[in-house]
Design brief:
This protein is of the alpha/beta class. The chain has 19 helices and 18 strands. Helix content is 35%, strand content 15%. β13, α13 and β14 form a beta-alpha-beta unit. α3 crosses α14. The protein is globular and about 70 Å long.
């Protein structure tokens, strides 16, 4: 047994000191010492098939657990392909640490194989970029990377590991964990906000961002219900208040209802917790931009990066600490807000209710041959598939989805009953759904992980089906196949009617593809097959613990719910 402690081993030992139980990697010769350190470590090494998926998984881990997700890739092309995951974590404010193997120090500035400058590449899209130039600082840099990823507004951190440095012998001690401040709520500041909520006739709480827990979510729900204050969610963050709570008032962002947009304009007091009123939530800096409307913001980010509109009061605290303090108080005059409270929830209920009649026309038989796919005109309704799914789902299901019009069905209809239960990306990154669904299955194997994806989005990381199978992380995949990049086509129809260009796709038989990976594929080509197919899928994924893909052939003109 090799008793020499090299730099790679110190990196791994420091990860264990910080409580890391799983890392997502695409291996490379540039960081073999770290892979060697993982050999006997009490850390599961999840080998991914693409660097983008690898960093997406780390991002989803950060969202799901609140702790930094750990990704590892190699230099040059590996780092380049991981960049999209860094951008995703940056825009969502998610704690993530990306370790990148680098060329030896002696080879710098010589245009050596796969050479690049991590600081020039990543500094605009992450909180810190560390380069380990001395092996004696290996554990210290890991500790600082964790602190940087978690302090203030969370975000991604990049750590460069020169190949020669991590091979060197290490002498010293592991650097202890650096505590992260959660901020605090002074009595006078809390009183200012509580007074504003008490006297408001139409108060509204707007929530999202990171630094939430199941307990904080439950405390917020109870406070909102007890005091008749509706809660509206940020885009892709609809799991802070339970779906069926009378306090749930819907969500803002793409796909939101006009009624939800009206709520945030109508509210006489807006309390934002954990997020900011940014580009998407404000409809491109249009909603609630008047400076005479009071906006109280609770956010650890002292810069309030991305916020638009007025700031009446800013409390630097995490949602966890603020909601805990707020939940200990009962407001006055809650009776006067009951009409407003019930009105807001009724708008959410109407928006999330399934239609009584489906408009999709049954055009052919229940099944069709693969060879006839291009000319077959048998379609299933995505709405009916999701409706049947919701009737069979367990209450603690976790949903993941990436980018595309298929997400509108997930965001609108899938019920969230606990936090966390919705994993998604707010920067429009495609290929996120399956990797994040795998993370949910790994982190919480007793809960059902449901992946909602589209034909374009799925094919960007379909190889991760093998990751799901290999690591026993079963997911239920609902794949909407309309043979196009539907979101872009919708924009085309709005700006250039009847001139569809560059958005059409030629797809495989996704059910057969799933079978080839070792999953179970089911094709749905008409509404008649929906109930039986969903029932079969639910049995296989929950009882047999096997990944299932429902290949839903939909009408290309069915672009939205």
């Amino acid at each position: 047994m090799n008793n020499i402690i090299h730099g790679g081993q110190v990196i791994v030992d420091s990860l264990q000191l910080h409580g890391v139980s799983r890392t997502y990697v695409v291996p490379g010769e540039s960081y073999l010492s770290v892979l060697d350190g993982l050999y006997e470590a009490d850390i599961q090494t999840v080998v991914c098939r693409h660097e983008a998926a690898c960093t997406y998984m780390a991002d989803a881990h950060g969202k799901f657990t609140g702790q930094p997700g750990i990704a590892m890739v190699t230099r040059g092309p590996g780092a380049a392909q991981a960049y999209t995951g860094i951008h995703t974590a940056w825009q969502d404010g998610v704690p993530l640490i990306l370790f990148i193997g680098l060329i030896p120090i002696a080879d710098r500035d010589r245009e050596s194989f796969q050479e690049f400058d991590p600081k020039q590449w990543f500094s605009s899209q992450c909180k810190r970029v560390f380069i380990l130039d001395e092996v004696s600082r290996a554990s210290e840099i890991v500790a600082k990377a964790f602190h940087a990823a978690l302090e203030g507004r969370p975000g991604p951190v990049v750590v460069g590991l020169p190949e020669d440095i991590i091979q060197q012998e290490f002498h010293g001690q592991l650097h202890p964990v650096i505590p992260v401040a959660e901020g605090s709520v002074s009595d006078d500041k809390l009183e200012v906000i509580l007074s504003a909520l008490s006297t408001a006739e139409k108060p509204l709480i707007f929530v999202g961002g990171q630094n939430w827990t199941t307990e904080a979510s439950m405390q917020l729900t109870k406070f909102a219900e007890d005091n008749c204050i509706p809660v509206i969610h940020d885009w892709r963050a609809s799991d802070r208040v339970t779906f069926d709570s009378p306090a749930h008032a819907g969500y803002l962002g793409y796909g939101r209802s006009d009624e939800c947009a009206a709520l945030i304009e109508t509210a006489d007091v807006l309390l934002t917790i954990g997020t900011v009123l940014g580009d998407v939530a404000s409809d491109g800096y249009k909603l609630r931009q008047s400076f005479d409307k009071p906006n109280y913001i609770v956010n650890l980010d002292t810069s309030l990066r991305g916020h638009s509109g007025s700031v009446t009061e800013h409390i630097v605290a995490s949602p966890i600490s603020f909601v805990k303090a707020m939940s200990k108080v009962s407001l006055v005059n809650s009776v006067s807000r009951e009409t407003w409270f019930h009105y807001c929830h009724e708008q959410q209920r109407k928006d999330c209710a399934f239609p009584d009649k489906m408009t999709t026309t049954e055009k052919a038989t229940e099944t069709c041959d693969v060879a006839d796919l291009a000319t077959d005109h048998s379609y299933a309704s995505m709405t009916q598939v999701i409706q049947q799914l919701t009737e069979q789902l367990p209450k603690d299901a976790v949903y993941s989805f990436g980018a595309g019009n298929h997400c509108l069905w997930a965001q609108r209809y899938l019920p969230t009953h606990t936090f966390p239960s919705q994993l998604s990306t707010r920067n429009g990154a495609m290929g996120y759904s399956l990797p994040s669904g795998i993370v949910a299955a790994l982190e919480s194997p007793k809960r059902l992980s449901v992946v909602i994806t589209g034909d374009g989005e799925f094919m960007m990381n379909e190889a991760e089906l093998s990751t799901s199978i290999r690591y026993d992380a079963p997911v239920l995949i609902i794949l909407m196949d309309n043979q196009q990049f539907g979101t872009i086509r919708q924009h085309q129809e709005a700006h250039y009617p009847d001139r569809v260009s560059g958005t059409q796709l030629q797809n495989p038989d996704f059910a057969a593809l799933a079978n080839a990976f070792g999953a179970h594929g089911i094709r749905i080509t008409s509404n008649k097959g929906i109930e039986a197919s969903v029932t079969e899928a639910m049995h296989i994924v929950t009882k047999e613990r096997k990944t299932v893909l429902l290949h839903v052939i939909t009408d290309p003109d069915e672009l939205t719910p």
